[in-house]
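re: ur question from earlier - yeah i can do the single chain one, its not a big deal. heres the input i used so u can compare w yours
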Amino acid sequence: MRTILNINNEWIFSKPGCDAERVDLPHSWNSVDGQDGGNDYFRGTCRYTKTIAKADIPEADRCYLEICGANSSAKVTVNGKEMATHDGGYSTWRVDLTEVLEDENTIEIDVDNAANDRVYPQMADFTFYGGLYRDVNLVCVSESHFDLDFYGTPGIKVTPEIKGEDAEIEIEVFLTNKKDGQKIRYTVLDKEGNVVAEKVTDDDDAELEIKNVHRWHGRKDPYLYTAKAELLDGETVLDNVSARFGCRTFEIDPENGFILNGEEYPLRGVSRHQDRWGLGNALKPEHHKEDMDLIYEMGATTIRLAHYQHNQYFYDLCDEYGMVVWVEIPYISKHLPNGRENTVSQMKELIVQNYNHPSIVVWGLSNEITMSGEDEDLLENHRILNDLAHDWDKTRKTVVACVSMCSIDSQYNKIPDVVSYNHYFGWYGGDTSMNGPWFDKFHEKYPNIPIGCSEYGCEALNWHTSNPQQGDYTEEYQAYYHEELIKQLFSRKYMWATHVWNMFDFGADARNEGGENGQNHKGLVTFDRSYKKDSFYAYKAWLSDDPFVHLCGKRYVDRVEDVTKVTVYSNLPEVELFANGVSLGKKASPEHFFYFDVPNVGETDLVVVAGDFKDEGKIRKVDTMNEDYVLKEKGAILNWFDIDAPEGRLSLNDKMSEIMKTFRGKLILAGMFKKVKQGLSGGKGTAGFNVPKDAMMQMMNGFTLLRLTSLMSMANVKFTKEELLEMNRKLNKIKKKK
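and the output i got, formated as tokens:
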């Protein structure tokens, strides 16, 4: 029988220039420096070493080392002999150790996350944490066993097909060293563990039938069966594998969106990165479970698991909780001419290892890969991946996530079955009102291509204001942004799926914005999962059936205005707000967003009531703005409040679109862009990106000039304090156009 021995504990970790230390897995060496900003986290090769006695290994004919995640390339050496290498930091792979095992065994795993030109990802807005950050096991099996070598296979492949009220279940198994006379017993169990179908045969595939099949129906009813396969030699079970599966049908309709088991089932949800504050990507099961519980509480029906293969345990949770899932490989941001082989191997691993999960409906080919333009090599790479996905899995669709500036007429987005776009109108330029109409335009021109929104969002930290503005990083602007996007995206039935970017703040060590460097703060929940931002509850109000009421702005107590706006979110039809025990009236809202004007005198205790539910907070009148609420960029050359901005005159705090309205403003910007062009790599494109000029200007018009210069620093275009102040002095001389 198969025995799996976890060997996570007591490894010796060696990093160049540092003393060796004892660590337990999962482990990442970038759990601190990959989250603190500066884009200077260690990227190189580190070694994990473990000694294990043969007597401590379960007795078996063959012994495999199973590595569930080593980012991003790795080499295994046992007792001084190099055994295997692997490229790709997010999938499971195995090494047969049988022939080299001795009485005492030293296992060395060299893990490398250094930059190269052939293994994805190499350019992206997240930290490429190095480490052995998932489980490492020994898998001990008989000489005849279910395959352990083929792209990390689980050894069993289950394909259900619903026919009327019943389902035919095709079970394929993959065997190594099967001997004459050995048989396979196939069994299907229901959720309660009862046998519903069984067959014993010589064949490595079998068809079984489930009568009156119980369908997997998303959150409403995530019913799971289990398929088991046992390799028999007479009455002896030599090896066994199993997989849970679900029986369901789905369609992605360009007019009616996602259809599950013949019913319209809107996919409205989030994207998720796998890292955490202080841990990097070295998560334990309880961390994955907490993530799922938060996503489920919000009411999401779908998750985009970006931008790589996630932990098998999280896919299991998606099956159990009824999430409809988009999975993808890390073919992202920059096409590597030498990386084709790696995209193919990572796609094969993704499909082979995840085929049995009913939650998965689309295989993602790439994300924002046309940032630097598209050429024939890139397009051919995608055609190969698209054909591979359809050849290896005839039951699911393919999808790409297009960068906002990618033309809707691009050949790239004609390759997959389904298309989604990453749009940030209202954050990276433009304004919130542009989102819905953009999708209408796509849908009108290409009515037969299912279209969705794979990313949208804006950043928020613990900054606050009663006058939220695009780019201010306040919790209030993020809440406003998502209110607007919810109303626009959720009302468009044809959109096959929408995914907020992101459910959680995540590590992006190159980032230097928002006052807390090294992170992307677009999450609806903080990096440490301790605080649900107000925007989290905006989604809960629309998506969750569990009744609740939420008073926004609990962290925004001190306010200067005499009458202040207070926002409430609830999925109940009516709410009532009390200020120091006095009712300010009841309000109803079909949009689930309720707004009250509240007199701000002294200290006011606020209580909001909806049905049997209530929430509370307080506000306090102050004469001057509490400086703790005001954004202070860490390491910024200038903050917005350091800038002279005379009324009626231009300044660095004005948007590009305002400055461009004036002739003299255009001249100042022309001088600035001359410096920008010189600072960018070779003077070509924008930070290495080949962005269409009109699309770039459309986005940039929504930035304040100060914010734009700050973002340019990430592309190594630096402005001194003196240069910025001189530019501001010139702008102050120019009257604003009305």
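Confidence is low (pLDDT under 50) at residues 680-692. not sure if urs matches, ping me
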